[in-house]
Design goal:
single chain, mainly alpha
Length: 300
């Protein structure tokens, strides 16, 4: 084990990346343990706040990434040991930020809602990519050319081709295939050629009714594959995520707003204007925010 660590990590100069990787995982696990204890009201664990203002841990993540990033720039040429320490600080901060990725994405607190699973996806993605980099793989088939103009153009062409395939794969809704294909380019060919997922931008543009080139048969096939093959995989992924990070089973506030609007303005009645709907949504979200502050013990 010592020989493997020395040959694959130390001698290849990947110690800072390894420290980032370990700190990312450790900080994420400790953060999830903490927030789950807060949610369960166990022990002395509680939210951090100033007065009535709850301070989300993404704030501490921003501070740590700034400290680790700036300190890394200062010490990178002085000592690899201290550079590894700053990389670990940066990794811990990145974990705190990514753990509240859904908050940044939706600009509202959806930590324990269905939308909050996006944060877990973001952390798992960062861990997977960092792990692949530690193995020595390079994204998009990036390799140093032989120094000749022909070699440089060949390297650039491979990178551009793989990047184009990755974009097509991601637009088809195959996120994990696209991310893995960045390091294993043959997967990008498979992802780009195969049928798009029914909810993807590609299906919306080229397959769905009303699109540029509606293809009802392909859309029906995509829906069938989604139900038969994709849904069990997603359910297994969600089960594993919630085993690690806790259940995201609170109802979506956005869905509650839509259901309440539908109940208050059923079909056949005069539709409310966009401004009135926005005002109503703001009222409901304000009420939801007040309710959330009354139960802060259930949320980190």
């Amino acid at each position: 084990m010592d020989d493997f660590f020395r040959e694959r990590i130390l001698e290849t100069g990947r110690l800072p990346l390894f420290c980032f990787f370990v700190a990312l995982i450790a900080a994420f696990v400790l953060t999830r343990i903490n927030v789950r204890l807060i949610r369960a009201k166990i022990g002395w664990f509680g939210n951090v706040g100033v007065g009535d203002m709850h301070i989300h841990h993404v704030v501490f993540g921003v501070v740590l990434t700034l400290l680790g990033g700036v300190a890394g720039l200062v010490v990178s040429g002085l000592s690899q040991g201290w550079y590894a320490v700053t990389a670990a600080v940066f990794g811990a901060g990145a974990a705190l930020i990514l753990d509240e990725f859904a908050l940044i994405l939706h600009l509202r607190d959806v930590y324990w809602e269905e939308e909050g699973r996006a944060s877990v996806d973001a952390v798992f993605t960062a861990i997977a990519i960092t792990g692949l980099l530690l193995t020595g793989l390079r994204p998009l088939g990036w390799e140093n050319s032989d120094g000749t103009p022909r070699g440089a153009w060949l390297t650039a062409g491979v990178i551009v081709a793989n990047l184009a395939l990755a974009v097509v794969t991601l637009l088809k809704g195959k996120i994990w295939t696209g991310l893995a294909g960045l390091f294993l380019p043959p997967l990008l060919i498979v992802g780009a050629v195969r049928l798009a997922r029914p909810g993807s931008p590609w299906a919306h543009w080229f397959m769905a009714p009303g699109s540029r080139r509606p293809r009802p048969r392909k859309m029906a096939t995509a829906v069938h594959r989604e139900r038969r093959w994709r849904r069990p995989v997603i359910q297994a992924k969600i089960a594993f995520q919630e085993f690690v990070s806790g259940r995201h089973d609170l109802p979506s506030t956005r869905r509650l707003v839509r259901l309440q609007e539908r109940h208050e303005h059923p079909a056949g009645q005069e539709r409310v204007t966009g401004r009135e709907r926005a005002a109503g949504r703001g009222h409901h979200e304000g009420a939801a925010g007040r309710d959330g502050r009354e139960h802060t013990a259930s949320r980190e």
